[in-house]
Amino acid sequence: MAAETGAAGRPAENMETKNEQEEQIVTPWDVAAEKGGKIDYDKLIDKFGCQRLDHSLIDRVARLTGRPPHVFLRRGVFFAHRDFSDVLDAYERGEKFYLYTGRGPSSEALHLGHLVPFMFTKYLQDAFKVPLVIQLTDDEKCMWKNLTVEESQRLARENAKDIIACGFDVSRTFIFSDFDYVGGSFYKNMVKIAKCVTYNKVVGIFGFSGEDHIGKVSFPPVQAAPSFPSSFPHLFSGKDSLRCLIPCAIDQDPYFRMTRDVAPRLGYHKPALIESSFFPALQGETGKMSASDPNSAIYVTDSAKDIKNKINRYAFSGGQDSVENHRKFGANLEVDIPVKYLGFFLEDDNELEHIRTEYGSGRMLTGEVKKRLTEVLTELVERHRRARAAVTDEMVDAFMAVRPLPNMFS
């Protein structure tokens, strides 16, 4: 079967993701906008060969689930997809699917950008009543971040607690770390995938160089394998035709372009994707948050005082340089980070529109917007902290136990 077609009729699965266009770089490991500007998502869609998530699909989700669309759908946080319409077609015919997402455990605590895919995945799981597998790529971070095996495994369990705190249903959710789970049917799929991808292709997709160790080159099949149901025989035995839907940030697209090219050759459906934009750093929309700069992000471990301080000191404002000018010209909402953060986490559409209108006209000042954002994020982080404190080691063991899921499709 032919590879998918991207921009200018080129095979999307073979398109480079690094340094193909000088104006911006988006790979699973590096995100940078052009000369300190914003990520151009229209160019990214054209380059990767995915599709815009339009209102007809969002309306269809609401109709099929009987639930209002998630705020991340309504406001375009999840903005692109691959074959999501095929998943909805199959669901409408009575065919179920499973969800797959993941986390690379490289830090002790998650920041708000890390929470976005898990918050959305929980909505999908609850709305469609489907099983979910969550991959913790402790092996990847051991190779990329120069962590020891033991430290990578420890961080995986700590991050699992934050993921569980998002409210996932243990009767429909399997969390696994690569160091613990890879083997058996999963490893067989990895080998089958690896045999289908040439070295030239993997270099073209991921931009590996001669300086990268072979562990990096061999990793993509590990992230690809959960896309195929036979990788989880304790869950999906005899269900090789089950479709997979992957919610993720768009920087993960290269992994799954490769996977989608391989899938038909191995007898599986191509995994479908629903992809999000990046959660911006406090300092502005030049890329995504960085765990290496604690002042670029709000962490789930931050105190109320930390959150207030970070927003007031570091959140880039689109307000004017004086009250007089602000009243006259209003705020530039296109660059204002507090407004963008409210777009992610303020549930009330009417209040958000009121803030945008008042702030954009100059009737509301920057300090008022930052105060409201501080309230919203403090409540969110405190709620997460309480939920995380209730997660025990026994609960982690239950989510990570290799066992059938009793309420998988009910």
Automatic annotation (TrEMBL):
GO terms for molecular function: ATP binding; tryptophan-tRNA ligase activity. PANTHER family: TRYPTOPHAN--TRNA LIGASE, CYTOPLASMIC, TRYPTOPHANYL-TRNA SYNTHETASE. Pfam families: tRNA-synt_1b. Belongs to the class-I aminoacyl-tRNA synthetase family. GO terms for biological process: post-embryonic development; reproductive structure development; translation. CDD domains: TrpRS_core. Keywords: Aminoacyl-tRNA synthetase, ATP-binding, Cytoplasm, Ligase, Nucleotide-binding, Protein biosynthesis. Gene3D superfamilies: HUPs, Tyrosyl-Transfer RNA Synthetase. Its EC number is 6.1.1.2. NCBIfam families: trpS. This is Tryptophan--tRNA ligase, cytoplasmic. It is found in: Cytoplasm. GO terms for cellular component: cytoplasm. Residues 1-24 are annotated as: Disordered.
